UniProtKB/TrEMBL annotation:
Keyword terms, alphabetized: Glycosyltransferase, Transferase
Family: Belongs to the glycosyltransferase group 1 family. Glycosyltransferase 4 subfamily.
Protein name per Swiss-Prot or TrEMBL: Glycosyltransferase family 1 protein
Organism, as annotated: Thalassobius vesicularis
Domain of life per record: Bacteria
GO molecular function list: glycosyltransferase activity
Matching SUPFAM superfamilies: UDP-Glycosyltransferase/glycogen phosphorylase (SSF53756)
């Protein structure tokens, strides 16, 4: 893909998108609702933070009384990212199941039970079937290809207990699946379920804009994520090694990648925290998001790239799946299909601070226009109203 050529990607439009600007939607939004959000993770977990927690104050302003019950508490979340400690993990899981079942005892007090991922990450959907048979309104939210089996990096037991077929049954069982992108939505409808797309918001109010890009100090190339996905940097290892040799003054940083190392590239690793993430984004000039060419990557909803965009960090990403809808090549980031694409994009951005600055400003403005949390919360409220209307 030649550098600077605009990638002609037309965003997918669908009748399944929620049109919350309609008068009927505005009328419905005046009715108070009570929603039980059942998340997989506490606020430290990115998928739960982005798919539920960030919308709560905006939903409250729209008349939604929300209660959140996380399967994992903060201690269990930290434990889940560690290798081994199987007995401790089993004990934490049993306690988590008890907490979840206890929270569900009052399911009739809520208009909607909103499941961010499955109620339990193992076994058949027995609880979901039981709730559905008794009249509960169930919504299932997912932003990863959970119906594709992937081994756990941390626990062979977790790999054994994962049940992709359970997710396919949930598509048919629930009143509505809320998907992070159109590919995930279409996967749910192909199984016979009703599904809509709700793209992930990004709150630029929490992320300061990057200082003006210059080459007066060394350029920093960064990656932000988790130990389970840092391995994808190895997909572009030869390119990064060439870039590091060609530009010896570069700084290289990883946040959240654990003990990842790469010969010839002096990565500096940092543990992730919500506050430290903001400091890291302020240091990064270029943000990487390589993904493998496989169906699992089609299910990714662009969270890493969108965060880079919001921070004024230039995203350089694999040209696969939702990334092609999120980014405009050469305008809000770079989309790479070949090794040469990666090398050309990185070389150009390292050398040209003005190019980085133009893209940074355009990308942040795009996030503000397309992914405002209040706007996406209104779309979520519209989904609630339309599902309840269909059940009336």
């Amino acid at each position: 893909m030649p550098l600077g050529r605009r990638r002609a990607v037309r965003p997918v439009r669908s009748h399944c998108r929620i049109r919350c600007h309609l008068p009927e939607a505005r009328r419905l939004m005046t009715r108070p609702l009570s929603v039980l959000f059942m998340t997989r993770y506490p606020v430290e977990g990115a998928s739960s933070r982005y798919r539920v927690y960030q919308y709560l104050p905006h939903l409250q302003a729209l008349g939604v009384k929300a209660e959140v019950q996380s399967l994992m508490d903060s201690d269990m979340y930290r434990l889940s990212t560690q290798h081994g400690r199987t007995l401790s993990k089993i004990g934490a899981t049993l306690r988590a199941v008890v907490r979840r079942l206890w929270a569900l005892r009052r399911w009739r007090d809520y208009d909607i039970v909103y499941m961010q991922r499955e109620l339990l990450p193992f076994g058949p959907p027995v609880i979901e079937r039981w709730l559905k048979a008794r009249g509960a309104v169930l919504l299932f939210d997912y932003d990863d290809a959970l119906f594709i089996h992937k081994r756990s990096r941390y626990s062979p037991l977790a790999s054994l207990l994962r049940a992709p077929g359970k997710v396919r049954e949930l598509f048919r069982l629930v009143d509505c699946t809320v998907a992070g992108n159109n590919w995930l939505r279409d996967a749910a409808t192909a199984e016979g379920g009703h599904a809509v797309t709700l793209e992930v918001a990004e709150d630029t109010a929490r992320i300061p804009m990057h200082a003006p890009h210059t080459n007066e100090q060394p350029v920093t190339i960064g990656w932000l994520g988790s130990p389970s996905t840092v391995k994808y940097l190895s997909l572009i290892q030869p390119i990064l090694q060439k870039i590091a040799a060609r530009h010896p003054n570069l700084r290289w940083e990883i946040m959240g990648g654990g003990t990842f190392e790469m010969p010839g590239v002096p990565w500096r690793g940092h543990d992730w925290s919500l506050q430290d993430e903001l400091a890291a984004l302020a240091r990064y000039d270029i943000g990487l998001m390589p993904l493998p060419s496989e169906d699992w990557a089609q299910g990714k909803s662009g969270g890493k790239a969108r965060t880079y965009m919001a921070a004024g960090v230039v995203p350089v990403c694999s040209a696969i799946g939702y990334n092609n809808e999120l980014l405009r090549h050469g305008e809000t980031g770079f989309l790479c299909q070949t090794k040469q694409d990666w090398e050309d994009a990185l070389d150009a951005l390292i050398l040209d601070a003005d190019l980085r600055q133009r893209i940074a400003v355009t990308a942040r403005a795009e996030v503000q226009a397309r992914f405002d949390p209040a706007k996406q919360a209104a779309a979520m409220r519209a989904i609630f109203d339309q599902v309840l209307e269909a059940r009336a």
